[in-house]
Amino acid sequence: MRYLPLTDTDRSAMLDVIGAPDIDALFADVPEEARLSGPIEGLPMHASEMAVEKHMRRLSKKNLAASDAAFFLGAGAYKHHIPASVDHIIQRGEFLTAYTPYQPEIAQGTLQMLFEFQSQVARLYGCAVANASMYDGSTACWEAVAMAGRVARGKKRKVVLSGALHPHYAEVVRTMAKFTDDEIAGAPPSLTAKPDDDGLIARIDADTSCVVVQYPDILGRLPDLAKIAAAAHDKGALLIAVNTEPVALGAIKSPGELGADIVVGEGQAIGVGLQFGGPYLGLFAVRDEKHVRMMPGRLCGETVDAEGKRGFVLTLSTREQHIRREKATSNICTNSGLCALAFNVHMTLLGEKGLRRLAMENHRLACLAADRLAKVPGVTVLNDTFFNEFTVLLGTDARTVVRQLADDGVLAGVSLGRLFPGSGNLANGLLVAVTETTTEEDIETLASALEEVLA
Length: 455
Fold this sequence. Notes:
- It catalyses: N(6)-[(R)-lipoyl]-L-lysyl-[glycine-cleavage complex H protein] + glycine + H(+) = N(6)-[(R)-S(8)-aminomethyldihydrolipoyl]-L-lysyl-[glycine-cleavage complex H protein] + CO2.
- GO terms for molecular function: glycine dehydrogenase (decarboxylating) activity.
- With 455 residues, the chain is an alpha/beta fold.
- Helix content is 35%, strand content 14%.
- A 7-stranded mixed sheet has the order 2-8-7-6-5-3-4, with helices on both faces. A 4-stranded antiparallel sheet has the order 11-12-15-14. A two-stranded parallel sheet has the order 1-13.
């Protein structure tokens, strides 16, 4: 019994200590009708470790791996090439440390890495300060909303969400807002070539603490952040920019440069593989240094020791596990240290020129894909602008098309009907993502498959 090491004798001894006659007595408060009368129907009984391994291996062969198909999935998680050197470096003994340096100054290597990571994120986002990573992009989004409430000192509680914010991010915000007094003002996405910036601006009022805008948005479009920032600031609100594809910032202006006050996002695209959906990496930065003490999470700083030598310290770590308790700036600010290290290493290997070249290749291939798909009868490209992800409209429910193409070995993209269930006008939309891992042959395969299915 590999995972259940207790013997019947062990269990009897434990029951004697707590004074219970048998294990059933531990569940006396559970109503009889809620208890199982026997094994769960349909589930197999226990088996040997070798038998389980063989069974799971057979099941895994039914999967279609990302590397075994023409792959066009995105919507917040992107397939990029990660050099083998990234995986090698992050496994070196200098970096294989414990989860969190609670006596941080001993771990100078870890702190230096986090300091460099913060510097990279701040530069990427066009901000003054970044923290030492967060749980993932969606929870970082909520953390930004909560921070905006602190900046407003609770006097403003309206949170305006762009209709083109990733629906999973919006759902996290709504879920967490159930435990606060925040009023979440959302809207359905507009299925138009350009984002409805004017409609978003019209929803900002004097009670608004922050406006949350994705850049590029969930349909791949580029909102006018500078215009939205000016409107938000005019009402005394903060602009929170959400970025799910950091490679895009090698080609487009940074959110901080365009006036965003808080910039958050998902760092998975750089250094971190798809990994069946996680673990991923939350990025968080602020444009104005005056907001630093309102930031959640950890912050690494550079200093000098008693001998004047350069050193690093963990500072402003006002989280619940430390001294702040219920006054902490966050309760979900897990530092994704290993993923941050992978991001740091990959970004260092790329450098600024490498990131810009990578971004240009992503955009070039995406343009080729958009042009080719536009020639397929029954397919309309929605976007006027995009980076490496765009929306196409089909003459039928995109979920059915995606399923048919997957059966043929083509992972065509993410249907908007899946992202926005119940929104009838979005059902025909398909979100297509193209990265440097996509070949021109893959693009032709997708186009040909679409022609066949739609015909």
